[in-house]
């Protein structure tokens, strides 16, 4: 496949500090990918991400296919140039839309037929089409087309999901060899919450020897304990010498737990989504900055944070911006929250390299409230 190298440098228990080299640069793992669905993080710019030290982002094949279209992006010189991001870019396959646009789609052996959520026009994604779109986007890492199921779902539904995901993986491999794009492909393990189906999916995909693997079908409505056992049981069964990506998960407490299981890569929309609604991530937990008690609080969002928002603005000011519905409120809150995740991952990597990850995790969780209250 395309230019790609991965090596585990240091371990601390099951936690791994690794180096992943794509055609666009070096990514240190574990890492968190800011979500840039349509080519930008919500409320921010790619220049902001560079400033924060983001090494890799995730964009969405389905949305970019609809607007502006992969041909436009290709003419611009690829997605990196189009959005001005010099790091690595992973593009999701559009498989999540199988779940989120269930009322607008039809699934067959050939692929997925959608009705566009924009204007209702027909859209067809086959495994081959998805690779072609991502090739034109010039992604560094391309996710193959998969079929995630809703929660809860039957054994029969998940058996079909595994069969189609495996077959589509085979077709993706075949088409990749024909067109030889610059990026590499990662496969996605499905199977819902049925142990034997997860085993089947993992075994069949690992036999195909993809450069990296993701555990998919999570964060789709299931309780925390359900996804925990899937990640705990199946992460160690993924190849040691390949990156391991858990899709759609990214709460701080989850990241710490899953890094401890050997997960390397995360993505989640909560950093900017929560921030735009006034819920800001800090080392003490989630701060509801709209609360009246911050009206005369002139301290930074997080006294321990060195981002430019915390260096220059107070809780009182940001609360004021939210109270008058100023767009800047969401921008400042989003900047800080994304920075929080990038800094958290950097600290995790340092802890693994230093051999004190468990101590770091325990101290972080002692201070971090998951109840959404920050004193």
Overview of the molecule:
This protein is α/β, with parallel strands linked by helices and 375 residues long. It has two domains: 5-268, TIM Barrel; 279-367, no CATH class. 42% of the residues lie in helices and 19% in strands. The chain has 15 helices and 16 strands. The longest helix has 28 residues, at 327-354. The protein is globular. The chain starts with a strand and ends in an 8-residue tail after the last helix.
Task: Describe the structure concisely for a colleague.
The protein is an alpha/beta fold. Helices cover 42% and strands 19% of the residues.
CATH classification, class level of the largest domain = Alpha Beta
Sheet with the most strands, sense and barrel status: 8 strands, parallel
Fraction of residues in H or I helices: 40-55%
Structural class: alpha/beta
N→C terminal distance = 51 Å
Tell me the overall shape. globular
Strand order of the largest sheet: 4-14-13-12-11-10-6-5
Question: How many domain modules?
Answer: 2
Query: What is the CA-based Rg, rounded?
Result: 20 Å
Number of helices: 15
Number of strands: 16
Mean pLDDT value: 95
CATH superfamily of the largest domain: Queuine tRNA-ribosyltransferase-like
> Poorly predicted ranges (pLDDT <50, ≥5 residues)?
none
């Amino acid at each position: 496949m395309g230019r790609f190298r991965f090596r585990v440098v240091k371990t601390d228990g099951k936690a791994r500090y690794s180096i992943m080299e794509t055609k666009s640069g070096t990514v240190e793992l574990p890492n968190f990918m800011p979500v840039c669905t349509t080519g930008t993080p919500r409320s921010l710019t790619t220049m902001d991400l560079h400033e924060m030290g983001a090494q890799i982002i995730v964009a969405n094949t389905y949305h970019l296919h609809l607007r502006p279209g992969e041909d436009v992006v290709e003419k611009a010189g690829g997605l990196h140039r189009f959005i001005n991001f010099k790091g690595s870019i992973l593009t999701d396959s559009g498989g999540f839309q199988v779940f989120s646009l269930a009322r607008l789609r039809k699934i067959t052996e050939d692929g997925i037929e959608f009705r566009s959520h924009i204007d209702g026009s027909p859209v067809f994604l086959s495994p081959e089409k998805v690779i072609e779109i991502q090739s034109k986007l010039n992604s560094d890492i391309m996710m193959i087309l998969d079929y995630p199921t809703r929660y809860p779902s039957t054994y029969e539904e998940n058996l079909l999901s595994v069969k189609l995901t495996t077959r589509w993986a085979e077709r993706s491999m075949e088409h990749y060899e024909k067109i030889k794009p610059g990026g590499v492909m990662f496969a996605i393990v499905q199977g819902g919450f049925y142990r034997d189906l997860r085993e089947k999916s993992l075994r069949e995909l690992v036999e195909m020897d993809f450069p990296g693997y993701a555990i998919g079908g999570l964060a789709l409505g299931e309780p925390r304990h359900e996804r925990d056992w899937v990640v705990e049981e199946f992460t160690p069964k993924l190849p040691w010498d390949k990156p391991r990506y858990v899709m759609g998960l990214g709460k701080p407490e989850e990241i710490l737990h899953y890094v401890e299981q050997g997960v390397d890569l995360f993505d989640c929309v909560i950093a900017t989504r929560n921030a735009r609604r006034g819920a800001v991530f800090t080392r003490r937990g989630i701060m509801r900055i709209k609360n009246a008690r911050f009206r005369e609080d002139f301290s930074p969002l997080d006294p321990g944070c060195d981002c430019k928002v915390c260096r220059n603005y107070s809780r009182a000011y940001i609360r004021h911006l939210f109270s008058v519905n100023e767009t800047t409120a969401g921008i400042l809150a989003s900047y800080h929250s994304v920075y929080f995740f990038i800094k958290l991952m950097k600290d995790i990597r340092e802890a693994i390299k230093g051999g004190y990850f468990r101590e770091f995790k325990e101290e972080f969780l002692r201070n971090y409230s998951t109840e959404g209250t920050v004193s």
